[in-house]
Design brief:
The complex is a heterodimer of chains A (162) and B (292).
Chain A: E1 4-11, E2 14-21, H1 26-33, E3 52-55, E4 58-61, E5 74-76, H2 89-96, H3 106-119, H4 125-131, H5 143-156
Parallel strand pairs in A: 1-5
Antiparallel strand pairs in A: 1-2, 3-4, 3-5
Helix pairs in contact in A: 2-5
Chain B: E1 4-6, H1 11-21, E2 25-28, H2 34-39, E3 47-50, E4 60-63, E5 66-70, H3 75-79, H4 89-97, H5 101-104, H6 109-114, H7 121-128, E6 132-137, E7 140-145, E8 151-152, E9 155-156, E10 163-170, E11 176-183, E12 194-203, E13 208-217, E14 225-226, H8 241-254, H9 265-291
Parallel strand pairs in B: 1-3, 2-3
Antiparallel strand pairs in B: 4-5, 5-10, 6-7, 6-10, 8-9, 11-12, 12-13, 13-14
Classes of the chains: A alpha+beta (162), B alpha+beta (292).
Chain lengths: 162, 292
């Protein structure tokens, strides 16, 4: 039993070796220790979804996990998705559709959409709405977000996007 | 918040630790209950045992006609469990509708049953299906019907040094069906106004009710309650509209609901009766369809 633990994680394709406190949440370590500030803290109780990351291929709320529970995990955040010069199709679609306003929920929405499209390349609007139902957006009203995800899905499937 | 975390390598390791430290230990698996409680200052654990990597408690298997579900099985895994095929609709439905997708990827079956603050609809579905709980401690194992387990503040009361390791479901009788339905103000993240888990077994072709189990939740609190008297009103003759109308009256008289900012007690009771009528028809229809 320890108050500090050695944790090895793969974050956005890079191996990270960290000594974490028992009480540190995965959210805290990603933001404060690794500087991945796309991962937001909203409610801190799993209700808003702003802290969503992809962990071992599943979306999870990083505010509800201790960092030590993510030992040996593969974690993806938006920082690993694209670059300033080469954005991911989902990022481009979100810009095209003005699907971000304040932007607080956007990283979680994009990660959720990426996770969905990896399992279902052409989801229906209903399936998209279900998939993003763990993330709250208080600005756009979701329509533009769903539009952007559908558009990105079409682009990623090789269709021409208008 | 300051606590130490213990990372057991095996179930035996965990049971040894719990036996040594007893009341001082909080268990964490999905974390969906414990961490918000710590953050709100409602829980102040000194020792936390992390179960999340105990793969020996993460399984869904069928063995000798019994479906065994490990306590660490994630809700999202049960929601799409192919092993169930079209069985246990009550359990599948509740798992498909619990909280939100990212929470379903974290939350565990064991946590919903024994955790301090969940809504316990999974527990209710398991009760309606007649599930059994397997409890282990260093001194042995006991298997009990979940329905008979004592609940303290809504969570299953375990003996000292004991943990829930799995739940078991029997193969259901041929002419039976189960269902779950909840009513809330939105589809995701809804704190239900009322939820219902039902198990119905009919005698065919007569359509007499052989067994009906009704469990409601959120009428007064998040502790599942069984409707004890209403099922008897449906046992005298084949299902028909008059009987169902009488059963609805009996149910309305039997249920106790409370008012809060979400709904009045009268509204909750009406919704509960509506759900009962709707799901009774659904279960009867599914049984008829499967017997063709």
């Amino acid at each position: 039993m320890m108050s500090r633990h050695l944790v090895v994680m793969n974050v956005n394709g890079k191996r990270c070796r960290l000594r974490v406190e028992s009480r540190e949440r995965l959210l805290d370590v990603l933001r404060e220790r690794l500087g991945l500030t796309s991962v937001k803290e909203g409610c801190g109780t799993g209700d808003c979804g702003a802290c969503i990351v992809i962990l071992n291929g599943r979306i999870v709320n990083s505010c509800l996990m201790l960092a030590v529970q993510a030992r040996n995990a593969k974690i993806e955040t938006v920082e690993g998705l694209g670059t300033d010069k080469k954005l991911h199709p989902l990022q481009k679609a979100f810009i095209r559709h003005s699907a971000a306003q304040c932007g607080y929920c956007t990283p979680a929405m994009i990660l959720t959409a990426k996770n969905l499209l990896e399992k279902n390349s052409r989801p229906s609007r209903e399936q998209i709405r279900n998939a993003i139902s763990g993330s709250l957006c208080r600005c756009t009203g979701y329509v533009k977000i769903v539009d952007a995800i559908q558009d990105a899905a079409a682009e990623m499937s090789g269709e021409t996007v208008g | 918040m300051k606590f130490d975390v213990f990372l057991p390598d095996s179930l035996a390791d965990l049971l040894r630790f719990i036996d040594t430290h007893r009341q001082d230990v909080s268990l964490i698996a999905g974390g969906t209950d414990l961490l918000p409680r710590i953050l709100r200052g409602q829980s102040h654990p000194k020792l936390v045992a992390d179960l999340s990597n105990l793969s020996e408690l993460d399984f869904v298997i069928r063995e000798n006609g019994i479906y065994r579900i490990g306590a660490l099985t994630r809700i999202s895994k049960l929601a799409n469990c192919k092993l169930f095929h079209d069985r246990f609709e009550a359990l599948r439905r509740v798992c498909q509708q619990l909280a939100s997708p990212p929470i379903r990827n974290l939350a565990t079956v064991g946590g919903n049953i024994t955790g301090p603050g969940s809504f316990r609809d999974v527990l209710m579905a398991l009760m309606s299906l007649g599930a059994k709980a397997v409890l282990k401690s260093r001194s042995g194992e006991r298997v009990l019907p979940i329905e008979n387990m004592p609940l303290e503040e809504g969570k299953m009361s375990l003996g000292g040094g004991e943990i829930l390791t799995e739940v078991q479901l029997q193969e259901l009788p041929r002419n039976s069906w189960s269902s779950f339905r909840k009513v809330g103000r939105r589809q995701s993240f809804a704190i239900p106004l009322v939820s219902l888990a039902m198990f119905l077994e009919l005698e065919l072709p007569s359509k007499r009710v052989k067994e009906l189990r009704l469990w409601f939740n959120h009428l007064r609190d998040s502790i599942p309650k069984k409707a004890e008297r209403t099922p008897a009103t449906l046992r005298s003759e084949p299902l028909n509209e008059d009987m169902i109308a009488r059963a609805c009256e009996a149910l309305s008289a039997e249920l106790q609901a409370s008012s809060d900012f979400k709904a009045s007690s009268d509204y909750r009771r009406r919704i509960a009766v509506m759900l009962f009528k709707e799901q009774l028809a659904h279960c009867a229809e599914m049984i008829a369809e499967r017997s063709r």
